[in-house]
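Suppose you are handed a protein chain with no further information: no name, no annotation, nothing but its sequence. What can you learn? This example shows the usual starting point.
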Amino acid sequence: MDKLITAPGTINYKKQLEQHKRIKQQADYDYSSPKAGYESGALITGSKKALQAHDGTWTKGYIIYEYPMYYKYSHVVGQIARVPNRFLLGAGKPATKADKTDGVRGTARSIAVKTEVLTRLLRMQERKENKKSFINIIRVDEVAADCGIALTAQTDRTLRKNIGLYLEELRKEGQLKKFEEAKEGRKIIGFKITL
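A reasonable first move is to predict its three-dimensional structure. Written in structure tokens, the prediction is:
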């Protein structure tokens, strides 16, 4: 992955798009654009992230921003099929719905939220260890802004619930002692953390 993020590449399949008129057009690609059929740049558009946990272990991962170049080409010319979840998960209800326990789903948005919450928590722990002052509140509006989430009444409730569930996971893992709702007046603005 490290090499693919920095490796340059170019694909020119303009003639293929012109000659094969029966290609099923994908909704997320502009076939009439002057640049249709031409891809250039890094083979994978993304970045590498690393976070250090409280116990000193490092977790590394990648954030991929769009289709890797060759996958995008295959998607545009119809060589990659999208398979509905029901075929992958079986004829019954999807596995994500079958689990009755609460939890934060593994969508890109929820992963971004978890990353933001964990980053804030690790900063608090680092400042506490270095005997520096810090604000021990994780604000929902700040997490939303950093994740590019527009806050409405519904997204605010959902985000608050998901942050609370994730903080509970971290509490069980021993990353923090406890947390509680933080309020401004009667409005819940986030969570107060006790390390």
